[in-house]
Specification:
Blueprint: H1 2-21, H2 29-67, H3 69-92, H4 94-127, E1 140-150, E2 153-164, E3 169-177, E4 183-187, E5 192-201, E6 212-217, E7 223-227, H5 231-240, H6 264-280, H7 294-304, H8 322-335, H9 346-353, H10 358-369, H11 374-392, H12 394-397, H13 401-412, H14 420-424, H15 426-438, H16 440-445, E8 598-600, E9 619-625, E10 631-636, E11 639-644, E12 648-650
Antiparallel strand pairs: 1-2, 1-7, 2-3, 3-4, 3-5, 5-6, 6-7, 8-9, 8-12, 9-10, 10-11
Helix pairs in contact: 1-2, 6-8, 6-11, 7-8, 9-10, 11-15, 13-15
């Protein structure tokens, strides 16, 4: 601005000066005097503008000296402060850095064994010809075809869908179509979000498409029909959504009142199924675990319970294969409007088996069974007697007591309301069935002790958090859990922590899971595979074929965690599982290896490279909690690895 003002005054002054110098000397005196006065005034203005401009230039030049250097000094001060703070921080974090280097060295040492585990998993995934459930932050996700109405009929649109079991949120996003007609997998627009009400498998004869199932949502009226890519993929979706089988037409059962559910036709059907199984198929591998073809099962049910069929109709074992008969038996029990062990006594059974006293569990279940309605108890007697015979052939069929508990727990028992707490109690339903099988003679053929107090639902007890529940008196091997994943994105997947295990990434605990498991591997060192997918959580399967759920459960009544079971040695006394708080340092999530020692009460043979083999009486050093629930980290004979927590006693 000063420069502009100076230039303007200069131009004006020199212009007037030129005019003044060009004045003729012959002009009148008064005119010349006026011109002199004007030139003096303009010269004064020009002079003042010049001084102001020079002053401003001088001011700018002087201010440069401190306005530039001062920020530079401030920057240097901040830089030095930063480096000083960094030095102090480095000193403060030196112990943590040293510990991290120690952990890195251990990780590097364990790399080879971990790589071999992952390589074996990769080879199994490569050799699989079925769909499998990959790790995910969602309970289930993938592409589905959605049936949509059009003016001239229906069309099927491909959507990318996700489902979260905790919130029952189901989302659908239309997949983008390229101009060439090929799908590029991209999702456009915001997804539609719904709250799931129910999910039912679509009957094969009700639609011309395969692999379909129906869902009901709160936001829409009517049903939404979805199509999966394969039968295995549909089973995964049904498991994630707690899908139900379509209600079969059972006129002799469902059309009558509640007290008639267990009628003559039902008893005859169960007896005939059991007779067929015991006659020709009680030693078949995976009996009751491997499900039959749904269409054949439906045909068996419709044939048996047709209004035209007599109540004592025979089951032709030449016409129906073993898997169809066993699936029909399970479906009949599941189709009952009220489970065989009743809604009324459901919570009492659950509370009974949560007791730490093994004898009380048996006595309480004994008393509760005799509180069942007469027909329910009679049907339960018939079924459990059969399951006892099945378990006696476990060397051939691999259906041990614990495996049968996993299959028939959700079939014979279910909560009236499908809550998260009810889902967490599925494990205890399995234990009830185990007790019924193991103590069949006592429970069904003797009267219960009238002095045994019946269980009462109780509030959460803080003292139980430090003690684990021993699930059964049966012989079992310790269950090793190993998750061969090296990352933990958003704590939703690839995690070995029980709190971060996604519900959908483990084998489903719904009643349908009992029908879709492939043949159990007999070798104890090989993980069992799940039909419908390769499990991404590797759980070494016990030698007796026990189904490994790989789930850490917490119910409202108990915060106890599932512990490794006792080794299969009948000479060993039942071990009371206990958890010892080593010191307060473990409460902050950071536990350094210390001088804590422990002694082995039993011998154990390692099933994985990261576990320890040891004899009875072995002394362990540097014992501290592991991130694997139910396991400790310890050093024995110079080697550090995992040992079962309930195999040792602290010194």
């Amino acid at each position: 601005d000063g420069k502009k003002k100076f230039d303007k005054e200069s131009e004006k002054y020199y212009s007037i000066l030129d005019k003044h110098l060009n004045l003729s000397a012959k002009k009148k005196e008064s005119h010349l005097q006026e011109a002199d006065t004007q030139i003096d005034r303009e010269h004064q203005n020009f002079y003042e503008a010049s001084l102001e401009y020079v002053f401003k230039i001088q001011e700018v030049q002087e201010k440069k000296k401190f306005e530039f250097v001062e920020p530079l000094l401030s920057f240097l001060q901040g830089l030095f402060t930063f480096y000083h703070e960094g030095y102090e921080l480095a000193q403060e974090f030196a112990p943590y850095k040293q510990q991290l280097q120690f952990n890195l060295q251990n990780t590097r040492n364990n790399f080879e064994s971990t790589r071999q585990e992952v390589e074996r998993l990769m080879q199994r995934m490569k050799s699989a010809n079925q769909d499998y459930r990959p790790p995910s932050q969602w309970t289930m996700e993938g592409y589905l075809y959605v049936q949509e109405k059009r003016p001239l009929g229906f069309t099927w649109i491909k959507h990318y869908c996700t489902y979260d079991k905790g919130s029952k949120t189901f989302t659908m996003s239309v997949s983008e179509m390229k101009s060439s007609g090929k799908m590029n997998g991209l999702v456009t627009g915001s997804p539609e979000m719904f709250k799931l009400k129910s999910c039912i498998r679509r009957k094969t004869d009700s639609i011309d498409k395969r692999f379909c199932f129906d869902i009901e949502v709160v936001e829409r009226h009517g049903i939404i029909t979805l199509q999966a890519f394969s039968e295995a993929n549909r089973k995964l979706w049904l498991e994630a959504m707690d899908g139900k089988e379509p209600i079969y037409t059972l006129p002799a059962i469902i059309s009558k009142k509640e007290e008639m559910y267990l009628n003559e036709a039902g008893f005859n059907f169960v007896r005939k199924c059991i007779q067929a199984v015991e006659t020709r198929g009680i030693t078949i591998l995976g009996l009751y675990r491997i499900g039959g073809v749904n269409s054949k099962v439906q045909k068996l049910m419709n044939t048996t319970f047709s209004p035209k069929s007599p109540p004592d109709i025979d089951i032709d074992i030449e016409l129906w294969d073993n898997k169809t008969i066993t699936s029909g038996l399970k479906n009949y029990l599941r189709c009952l409007a009220e489970p065989l062990m009743t809604y009324k006594l459901h919570k009492d059974f659950i509370v009974a088996v949560k007791s730490d006293d093994q004898n009380y569990r048996v006595e309480a279940v004994h008393a509760l069974v005799h509180k069942l309605p007469e027909k329910n108890r009679e049907m339960l007697d018939i079924l459990i007697k059969h399951l006892v015979k099945v378990s006696l052939h476990s060397q051939q069929n691999l259906m041990t007591v614990s495996n049968l508990g996993v299959i028939f727990g959700p079939t014979l028992m279910r909560a009236q309301e499908e809550t998260v707490a009810a889902m967490m109690n599925i494990k205890f339903q399995n234990i009830v069935v185990e007790i019924l099988i193991e103590h069949y003679e006592k429970i069904f053929h003797t009267a219960p002790d009238p002095n045994i107090p019946l269980p009462q639902p109780q509030s959460r007890s803080g003292s139980r958090r430090t003690r684990a529940i021993c699930l059964s008196t049966g012989s079992r091997k310790p269950r090793g859990r190993y998750t061969p994943c090296l990352a933990e994105p958003d704590s939703d997947s690839y995690s070995s922590s029980p709190d971060s295990t996604p519900m959908g990434s483990i084998e489903s605990l719904s009643s349908h899971s009992s029908e879709q498991n492939s043949t159990t591997k007999s070798a104890s060192c090989q993980p069992r595979e799940k039909s419908g997918g390769i499990p991404w959580i590797v759980s070494p399967s016990p030698s007796n074929g026990q189904k490994s759920l790989g789930l850490w459960t917490t119910s409202p009544e108990s915060s106890s965690k599932e512990m490794p079971k006792a080794p299969p040695n009948p000479d060993l006394p039942p071990k009371m599982c206990r958890r010892l708080r080593l010191d307060t340092a473990s409460s902050n999530g950071y536990q350094r290896p210390g001088s804590v020692q422990a002694k082995a009460m039993y011998s154990c043979k390692a099933e994985h490279s990261h576990e320890l083999s040891f004899p009875q009486g072995a002394i362990f050093s540097n014992v501290y909690p592991s991130v694997e629930p139910g396991w400790l980290k310890a050093t024995y004979e110079g080697k550090t690895g995992l040992v079962p927590e309930n195999y040792v006693v602290f010194l």
